[in-house]
Amino acid sequence: MKKNIISTCSLLTYILPLALLTGPFLPDFIICLIGVLITLLIIKEKEYTYFNNNFFIVFLLFCTYLLVRSFFAQNVVISLEHSLFYFRFGLFAISVWYLIENNRKFIKNFSIFLLATFIFALSDGYYQYFYEVNIFGFSWHGTRLSLPLNEKAILGGYLARLFPLLLAVLIYTFDIKKFHILLILLIMILTDILIFISGERTALGLLFLSTVFIIAFLSNYKKIRFYSFLVSILLMTLIAAL
To answer: Under the phi-then-psi rule, with left for phi > 0, alpha for psi from -120 to 50, and beta for the rest, what region is 147?
Structure first.
């Protein structure tokens, strides 16, 4: 039973980046399902160390704070919709921790799925930009690029938020060689440009922020990110001038 739950929850986590391209319902359902299954498994196996730590205790206190604040909001019902089940993110984080420790290939498999999904989103974004319609027929009206599997125009935000995670798991999982560096460099530039043309200011701000952190803290890759970002800025300037 334990092995089946771990395999099922691992697969659900692998497809989570793809589920994010469909809108909010499916990712929320997957997060809740994984959280419930792994929590029940932890309780069954009596591995309470996953919950008995300062990070989880602080998170529970934060959830309690949000819940209390909701009762003092102007619209209590709407506020509770966001705060009442916020604890699901904490359970999901515990679940991922559990999967990493109990599935030796979890991070490698996740990195492969994430890379494939990210390239798919990039490809669809450029297709949408040049042909004003994405692969699945959602039209682009010349303002913001939409998700491949949903009409919501938040593709830039999706890429900006997942790009640091993608870079982290690739560096952690694989022995980076010259070919891999060129691939990462190309993905960086293509991501920068697509976020820029997506028209989302928040996504662009997140991109700049992640770039600062990468240059500041990744000693082996700061030059790669610095030069790729310089190339991206030059290309953004050319696009803006056209």
So the answer is: beta
